Amino acid sequence: MQYWLMKSEPDEVSIDDALAAPGGVVPWFGVRNYQARNFMRDAMREGDGVLFYHSSCAEPGIAGIAEVASTAYPDETQFDPGSKYHDPKSTRENPRWLLVDVRALRKTRLMSLPEMRAHPELADMQILRRGNRLSITPVTPAEWRCIIRELE
DNA sequence: GCCAACGTTGGC
DNA sequence: GCCAACGTTGGC
Hints:
Residues 2-149 form the EVE domain. The chain is of the alpha+beta class. The protein is built from four helices and eight strands.
């Protein structure tokens, strides 16, 4: 059992959108970074805990709790010429990009970046590091417990 | 819209 | 394999 923080742009898929999906399950499409892909492919397992993070928006921060709902499988958007996630170099025989399904469990109050920074226990979180751009990052059990406690 | 940080690309 | 140029991310 591991824990993760996953960024989503709420204009694209917000925690409300995910909760409104059938069973609260959404495919985490659009990851186009090898490190993030490898986390999904090599380390994520069904039932892993997920902090649902809203990025590139007015109020960036943790907005909900979710869980990993599948192992990795090919991201269909890479094959769709009409998608902004289309990758002409990827083939169905050898797909370059994968995704996992994520099940939204509940919406929380927003835990903002400044609030996260104010917690000494969270000081080492990857999301808080300068220049961090990775859309999927591991969260330690201690960080997870701290955040869950704060959001209760 | 700015801009720092970082990943990717491609010429050599 | 180096590295400059370029594109993207994402908070502010």
